[in-house]
């Protein structure tokens, strides 16, 4: 039996929705009953913060996982449970969510990865012994070309590229596609699930000219079949992240449509046990 898929949310510029898409996909799958292992490979530690996980003293983080052998730091000891969240009089369960956290010390892992000569595969090799305990792993890399970004890319067999619906987003998409092209020969198992236009702006029933032009350009760059539905610019996402919940928990499931379609793209890679939990229509 093959291992569960590892999804990497890629973007080579800040503000592209990389962490948001990783977070929302994991929350969506976890809500359906699929065990999710998040891996926070960004020294900014956004995912660790968004999930409400506190890094404990003397507890290993991703830094130790990447820079120390399994005999010294067991990867299972670095996995934290994501705490449940109180939302008004409700409790939002995060029973199916787990995280290998990071802190700003992770930046120093770049030096160790650079000296190894095998940075592309280190995270993948470290995840192999434990990833089968989950339905899917989701990696959030740094928004830059670095050895942490390379080892994140190599860890994934499914890649998704969020890109802001503006000129900066198009440029980020171009650089991210160049990164994939550079290493694709060494990663024959890798597959691009699609591109998610992020922070799309609409006026009434129509996108703004800037949003439409950017999305049309993205479509020309990657082909129509790789374009996923856009994510609207909305304060609901900010509120959901701040409250450590999903838009659905705030009564706005329609804002997760792009995440639902992404989950559908991922479905064939899931085990039969978990694939059947992905609904045909958004929930």
* Cα gyration radius (Å): 18 Å
CATH topology: Rossmann fold
- Helices and strands, in order, run as EHEHHEEEEHHEHEHEEEHHHH
> Counting H and I runs of at least 4 residues, what is the number of helices?
11
CATH class: Alpha Beta
Named at the architecture level, the CATH assignment is 3-Layer(aba) Sandwich
Task: Output the structural class.
Answer: alpha/beta
Mean pLDDT over the residues: 94
Describe the sheet with the most strands. Answer: 7 strands, mixed
CATH superfamily: P-loop containing nucleotide triphosphate hydrolases
Query: How would you sum up the global shape?
Result: globular
Proportion of beta-strand residues:
15-25%
How would you characterize the overall build of this protein?
This protein has 283 residues and is of the alpha/beta class. It has one domain: Rossmann fold (3-Layer(aba) Sandwich). Helices cover 37% and strands 16% of the residues. It has eleven helices and eleven strands. The protein has a seven-stranded mixed sheet with strand order 3-6-2-7-1-8-9, sandwiched between helices. Strands 4-5 form a two-stranded antiparallel sheet. α1 (18-31) packs across α10 (257-266), α5 packs across α6 (147-155) and α7 (167-183) runs parallel beside α8. The longest helix is centred in the middle third of the chain and has 17 residues, at 167-183. The protein is globular and about 55 Å long.
């Amino acid at each position: 039996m093959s291992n569960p898929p590892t999804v990497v949310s890629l973007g080579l510029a800040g503000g592209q929705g990389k962490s948001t898409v990783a977070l929302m996909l994991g929350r969506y799958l976890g809500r359906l009953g699929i065990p999710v292992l998040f891996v926070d490979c960004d020294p900014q530690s956004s995912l660790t913060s968004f999930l409400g996980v506190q890094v404990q003293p003397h507890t290993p983080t991703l830094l130790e996982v990447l820079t120390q052998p399994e005999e010294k730091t067991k990867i299972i000891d670095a996995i934290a449970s994501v705490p449940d969240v109180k939302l008004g009089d409700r409790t939002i369960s995060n029973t199916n969510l787990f995280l290998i956290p990071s802190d700003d010390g992770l930046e120093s892992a770049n030096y160790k990865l650079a000296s190894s000569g095998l940075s592309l595969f280190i995270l993948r090799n470290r995840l192999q012994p434990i990833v089968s305990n989950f339905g899917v792993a989701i990696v959030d890399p740094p928004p830059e070309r670095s050895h942490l970004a390379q080892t994140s890319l190599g860890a994934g067999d499914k890649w998704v590229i969020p890109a802001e619906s503006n000129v900066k987003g198009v440029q980020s998409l171009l650089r991210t596609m160049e990164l994939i092209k550079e290493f694709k020969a060494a990663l024959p198992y890798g597959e691009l699930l699609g591109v998610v236009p992020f922070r799309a702006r609409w006026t009434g029933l129509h996108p703004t000219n800037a949003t439409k032009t950017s999305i049309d350009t993205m479509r020309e760059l990657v082909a129509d079949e790789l374009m996923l539905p856009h994510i609207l610019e909305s304060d609901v996402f900010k509120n959901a992240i701040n409250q450590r919940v999903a838009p659905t928990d705030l009564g706005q499931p329609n804002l997760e449509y792009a995440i639902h379609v992404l989950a559908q793209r991922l479905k064939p890679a899931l085990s039969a046990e978990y694939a059947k939990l992905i609904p045909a229509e958004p929930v």
